[in-house]
Amino acid sequence: MQFSRRAFLAATGAVAAPLLLPGCGFVGGGGGSGSGDADTLTFTTWGTDAELAGFRAAISAFQDANEGKRIELNAVPYEQMFTNIDAQLQAGNPPDVFRVPYYTFGAYAGQGQLLDLTPHLSEGVQDQFTETAWAAVQNGGSPFGLPHHTDTSAILYNADLLAAAGITDIPTTVEDAWTWDELSAVADQLKAALPAGTYPFAYNWQGNGVTRWLSLLFQADGAFLDTDQATPLIDSDAGRSAVEFSSSFFAEQWVPETDTTTSSTYAADSWFAGTVAMVWSGAFQIPDADTTADFEWGVTFAPRGVRRGGDFGGNALVATADTGKPELAAAFLEFVTAREQMQGFCQSASLLPTRPDLLDGSLAFDVRPELTDVFVGQASQVQPQDAAQVASPSMSGIIPVLQQELDAAFLGQDAATTVANMSQGIADATGA
Amino acid sequence: MPEPTAAPALAATRPAPAARPRRPRAETVAAYGLLAPNFGLLAVFVLVPLAGALLVSLQRTNGFGDGEFIGLGNYTRLVQDPVFWQALATTAGFTVVVTALSMALGLGLAVLMNSVLPARGLFRSVLILPMAVSGVATALIGVLVFDQNNGILDKLITAVGLPSVNWQSEPVPAFATIVLVTIWWRTGFNMLIYLAGLQGIGPDLHEAARLDGANAWQRFRHVTLPLLGPSSFFLVVLNVIYSFQVFDIVFVLTGGGPRNATNVLVTYAYDTGFVTRDQGYAAALGMVLLLLAAVFAVVQWRASRTRDLVE
């Protein structure tokens, strides 16, 4: 048979096109739920090496305990995670189960994208979690996920810089945490002692971490949303107090000028570089600090204002509304959040559990285990009503409002205008 | 007026339409066959998403479920949105500065590399090297250089006794960082195109100009520059469109800050679409961007007199 060059090229093109399309992401990969296999769940997550190892161990144990069942893990970079999930949800082929930060959870639950777990969970599951963690996965009074782990910010300090400034009395119990005034005095002392270009501290509110500013609001005994998760409450004395205190970080030059909420430089980078003495940070930073920091360092508690309080960070595990395997998905979520699995995961990844039966001293991080109690103690200060606000379906609209107004406040906008603008922006976002 | 007399002569030499040889059918089919995969890909990955984006831009939607059709609501909102105008002005400013500087530098370097410079092969390679680096990696290098607290540049500046520059916390220096990093990234490409253009200009023209008494500047201005018209046209269109679409460098280097000073249209659309999840409005921003790029390409096409100029 004669085969001309044109015919060859045309045939090659025709054959190659379908092969190329999946490479472009056009055809659903392993992450889609379209397999139709009733015994296989697809699970999409991002994670550090330690987190992914934890998930793989949990999956392996689940498959051993449930013969014939399979979990297909689809690990993706965090940067792509939610653009992928959104695209898959829009296209109708989402994974059965995925991992989601608490501040993003509400956006999916509020739009009917997640499975209401109420009829699928075992009796008494709620009692296995702390009240705060349970509040963070509620939407309209029903659980739409299980709280897999949490994290909250304490203060990592450079012991060398603090010692050089004569600061040796560092709180070791949550009751003794610095008050706002004491923290201010420490910052002044550091500012006077540190060389030019080195600052007392940096705050980790960059990017979506702006929710960590809410710790100061909660410490001022304030709230940004009412219990309906829609009505703004931030235009209050507590709101103004939190804005004034955080703005003073810049006015007093306690933080680098780049420590804004929209900065492309993360607070921890300045701490690792030795240009700030202290940094607000979650426990997840411990393994990095252990290997990277070339100075002596320790951890103390976040400050207290009118009351103690902190941000409820971390992630939930959720099932998608249209999964064809709700029972299997719920069983997997329960298994992964069981005591043994959660303990292994939190210890290796330096994260905090959401189960009270792991907050009794039985948890010890694999790296720097002596720091575990500081973070567990800090997490115990997070109140359920604080965590519930962050689960608002409108958080994706509220976060840019907080970023914009806080950065304006840090540049001199007065506190009253700032909270009034925040209140208006939050109302626009929630439709209240 | 030459046309009336020229036209009949031309018509007389032109073969009658009926006599024009027709292409063999097999050749036509093969041509369409070869074009079809490209047209198919273009349709699937460009035209269909474009039509989709246009539809989304007429809705209020967060991407889930059915959006609410609001006609030109997103476009009306866009006109009243100060952040949009600021992003548009920043994008336009960035485009003008980057296009002008990177093309001027590219041209200067191309002239230099086209001369009898020792080790010019090495210099050419060094200049073209940034092209091989991805935008994100380029921006990360920029972060190392311009970081206000730990960056190399501020350390060098203060080492020689000059005051440090607030590269990240002040609007003008932050804008300068994205311009400088982009120029570093793009100048090599501009140089390459100009170099190819320069090598297409025969030495006889310069020799003739020299014999006519033109000095070096006059030869460059009146011989070299006009003959680089097609290269310049190509580069202006490409640089302007690339600059309008700038995203990775801004996203990684400044995140659009401080205070939106480096927020360009694409970073604004990204934040609106994927952070705020206001996808209808983000699609409207995208359509405006498309319109601006298309209008520019058409205007430039019609206005450029030297785009097809050859020796």
From TrEMBL, chain A:
InterPro entries: Bact_solute-bd_prot1 (IPR050490), SBP (IPR006059), TAT_signal (IPR006311). Residues 1-16 form the signal peptide. Keywords: Signal. SUPFAM superfamilies: Periplasmic binding protein-like II. CDD domains: PBP2_TMBP_like. Pfam families: SBP_bac_1. PROSITE patterns: TAT. This is ABC-type glycerol-3-phosphate transport system, substrate-binding protein. It comes from Klenkia soli.
UniProtKB/TrEMBL annotation, chain B:
Pfam families: BPD_transp_1. It comes from Klenkia soli. This is Multiple sugar transport system permease protein. Residues 1-19 have a biased composition (Low complexity). It comes from the Bacteria. InterPro entries: ABC_transporter_permease (IPR051393), MetI-like (IPR000515), MetI-like_sf (IPR035906). Belongs to the binding-protein-dependent transport system permease family. Keywords: Cell membrane, Membrane, Sugar transport, Transmembrane, Transmembrane helix, Transport. Residues 1-22 are annotated as: Disordered. It is a multi-pass membrane protein. It is found in: Cell membrane. One of its GO terms (biological process) is transmembrane transport. The chain crosses the membrane at residues 29-56, 83-113, 125-146, 172-196, 225-244, 280-299.
